[in-house]
Amino acid sequence: MKRIIVGVSGASGMPLALCLLRHLAALPAVESHLILSPGAHAVLEAECGLAPSALHALADVSHDAACLGAAPASGSWQHDGMVVCPCSMSSLASIATGAGTNLLHRAADVTLKERRPLILVPRESPLSRIHLRNMIWASEAGAVIMPFMPAFYSGEDTLEGLMGQFCGRIFDQLGLSHQLCRRWQGPPDGTI
Question: Which residues are noted in the entry as dimethylallyl phosphate-binding (predicted)?
């Protein structure tokens, strides 16, 4: 069984977090651990009309973001990777600089130091130089920076379909088997 941490910060993008957790829940060989930042509560309500309990219900285990003694805060606790989706610029800065103040930040820091996969799904536009530098620092530390940029060649024509395709790309980074992506096979006639 693979153990995956999902951190949800207070950035816009809660439908994508819901999609990710739903697809993880459908994988029987995955145990998901949710860390929901305090800022995510209001954004979840504003964007989806949902209470935090809706996300908690999709995860196998939920951890209180204020509890810095929880299992994901330790490198000795084994897991197979972490996704922060969406990743606010504040969380990105905390992760990039190792100056975290909650369990989400600490778990990401531990994931980096233990050389496990860390996927950050930043949600901001336009990006300032500070944002870009923080992304570079996080990438240099080992994180994968993966903003939601749909693969339009997939033929998906709904937001749900595009989000599912993107979740498949996240699963690829985590080494999880899935059927969410239409894989590029080249153009039908062999030319572009």
Answer: 153, 169
